[in-house]
Amino acid sequence: MIEGGFETVKLKEIALTGARLAILSALVCGLVFPVVITGIAQIAMPYQANGQIVYVNGKPIGSAIIAQSFTSPLFFHPRNNSASGVDPDITLNSAYSQVSRINVSTHIPVASLKAIISSNVMWTYWIAGTPYVSVLKLNMVLMEKYPQIYSAFVS
Amino acid sequence: MIGLIQSVVLVSVLSAGLLLARMLAPYIANVYSYESRGRQDRLFLPIETAIYRLCGIKQDRVMEWKEYFTAMIVLNGLMALISFIVLIFQNSLPLDPQGFPGVRWDLALNTAMSISSNTNLQHYAGENTLSYLSQMVAIQFLQFTSAATGLAVAIAVIRGFAGKARGKQGLGNFYVDFVRSLTRILLPLSFVAALVFVYLGVPQSLNGYTPVTTIQGAQQLIKIGPVASLVSIMQLGTNGGGYYGANSAYPFQNPSQASDLLEMILMLLIPTAMPFVYGEMLGKKSRKEGISILVAAYALFMVDLAIALYPSTAIGPGMEVRFGGFAPVFWTVTTTAVTTGSVNAALSALNPLVIVSAFMGMLIQATPGGIGVGLVYMLMYVLITVFIVGLMSGRTPEYLGMKIGVRDIKLAVFGFLIHPFIVLVPTFMAYATRATSAIGLGTGSISFTEVLYEFTSAAANNGSDFLGSAANTVFFNVSTAIVMWTGRFVPIAVMLAIAGSMYSRDRGPTNGAGLKTDSLTFALVLFATILIVVVLTFFPFLALGPLLEFLRGHVNGF
């Protein structure tokens, strides 16, 4: 072993500098940056920063953009095979295909159900593209418009 | 085939990316000019000087290529070690509100080497595995530093190609380039992007997951965390490692079409700016050298898009409704063209031709490629191209007025051949050791595609994969970790060695007989060379996998 040789000294220096720079970078990029962003986001945009929580009667029931499970025939159902597993939306066709089931189990007129769908349509490219609807949005509208039918779910 | 709206979206995203990249390029070039003493320096220099003092960095020290490389690899090794330790001990560290246990050694090793090599292959689902501290100090941290490393290396290589006439700084000082990449480019841009992402609906919180009782009375955890700050750098730094296992398909990581388009533009931004930066740093007379490279890179990107968009882009299973069917295809081609590797749909949902296109992006690695390294690969292809042109015309190959020697070509070809070696040998070994059957993979074309994709993605430092958590085995964790670091640092060493010898090489007027490298003709020759060289190398293997699937007519067949 070449003690104190030029290469050894240089490598030692590189390791020492590297260790200090590694720790400093970890603190700045890994702690300071996300914590500062969190601070600003929590103060300026708390609704988005906390996951767009939706409340019914003051109780948190889910997030506006994360699918929740609907299995009762009274509701619109989300799809199960999407990439994230929590896709909050369904295509317009999928929504219309559920109308007759909801009509049978709730006796809400088909025309009213279709009207609820069509007044809540969104498009993949804002004003164009593929039309779709949010499952939670539709179900919240149903609960609001027909509180007696959905009374079991509003507690 | 695509319609009018999709065409408008495609053209708008690419134009926006090109325009913003063009605007950003002079700023980037200026960041690394040690001579300039402008407004930029007044703002950033005091902060940087403090950093240099804290770390004992001698900012005026000029490094030859071996020292530049050593400083880079040692720093990256130490940073990966920090990440590894945080992952293993996350259960004993703060900010673990969900009480996740420490990460197993082989997964922690894979993850630390994956993020530090700018790959972001993920054999875990972040939201179910990692504490807040790990997401920040093991993942986000390395996403910043691997991007900064890529930028620094690209700049050092450019300085070598530009030569001593363009400055006395040699290849530069790695620490200065690394720190400036962070303070002047990555941190400010990510800061703005992160806040825009929060505005668009990406969470940013340290409050722990929110338990709710759903309308039907079920218990659900709303998995929020420091997501926006991670998404900004994972896209800007062409990392691709998501907060969630489903990556940018998960609504919290990519809530809307607006965030989707912004994420696309962010990942295109710096890789597209680099050829302009190259032209800028070569000097006024050589600006077009950057243009011809950019043209070749984008022409290859267009070929990839044409292949992927040939089949139907209707929405199917495995895709998110809010994006539609076209967005996942456009995203998949783009994310592999810049070797980011994030996804906004399940890969298995895509037509085999889209997968062929994704392979092309990962095999070429320069269309326009990952942050910094995309340009480095392009310069490697340029050397191979001028050599082939030289052979055909019977003259000594020249580039930028200097002679290209035997050593340059040997090194460049070695750098190129590393790639097939670390893709194909591990793929073979995975089958030979039955590591594949251990996780339920057969020998059919679907399984073969998934295994080949795994190692191609690892070698190209891309990061998307079919296997995901299924590959969380000792074999796949360790083998891909080795492949990722080899695929990252060997070509970098090769190109730094070439750049180091070029720096002081004599440059004369060109002999006038060769092909002018700043011409459209050269762009075309470069385009064709890359296509032929890469296709010849990998065609048999693509034919066994995704091409076979396409010919069998298997759509959504993976």
Would you write up a description of this structure?
The complex is a heterodimer of chains A (155) and B (558). Chain A is α+β, with helices and mostly antiparallel strands. Chain A contains six helices and five strands. Chain A has helices at residues 6-44, 46-49, 92-96, 99-106, 110-118, 135-145; strands at residues 53-56, 59-63, 89-91, 122-125, 128-134. In chain A, the strands form two sheets. A three-stranded antiparallel sheet of chain A has the order 3-5-4. A two-stranded antiparallel ribbon of chain A has the order 1-2. The N and C termini of chain A lie far apart (77 Å). The model of chain B has no long low-confidence stretch (mean pLDDT 95). The two termini of chain B are 21 Å apart. In chain B, 60% of the residues are buried. Chain B has helices spanning 4-31, 39-55, 65-88, 105-116, 126-129, 132-162, 174-199, 228-236, 257-282, 287-309, 326-337, 352-364, 373-393, 406-432, 435-438, 445-459, 474-503, 520-544, 546-551; strands at 210-213, 219-222, 398-399, 402-403. The longest helix of chain B has 31 residues, at 132-162. By secondary structure, chain B is mainly α. Chain B has a two-stranded antiparallel ribbon. In chain B, a hairpin with a 2-residue loop joins strand 3 (398-399) and strand 4 (402-403).
- By helix and strand content of chain A, what is the structural category? alpha+beta
Strand element count of chain A = 5
Portion in helices of chain A: 40-55%
Strand order of the largest sheet of chain A: 3-5-4
Distance between the termini of chain B: 21 Å
Instruction: Give the strand content of chain B.
Output: under 5%
Helix-strand category of chain B: mainly alpha
> Stretches of chain B where pLDDT falls below 50 for ≥5 residues?
none
Give a short account of the largest sheet of chain A.
3 strands, antiparallel
Strand count, sense and barrel status of the largest sheet of chain B are: 2 strands, antiparallel
* Helix and strand sequence of chain A: HHEEEHHHEEH
Distance between the termini of chain A: 77 Å
Q: Which blocks of ≥5 consecutive residues of chain A have pLDDT under 50? A: 1-5
The overall pLDDT average of chain B reads 95
* Count of all domains of chain B: 1
Q: Could you tell me the radius of gyration of chain B in angstroms?
A: 23 Å
* Arrangement of strands in the largest sheet of chain B: 1-2
% residues in beta strands of chain A: 5-15%
What is the count of structural domains of chain A? 2
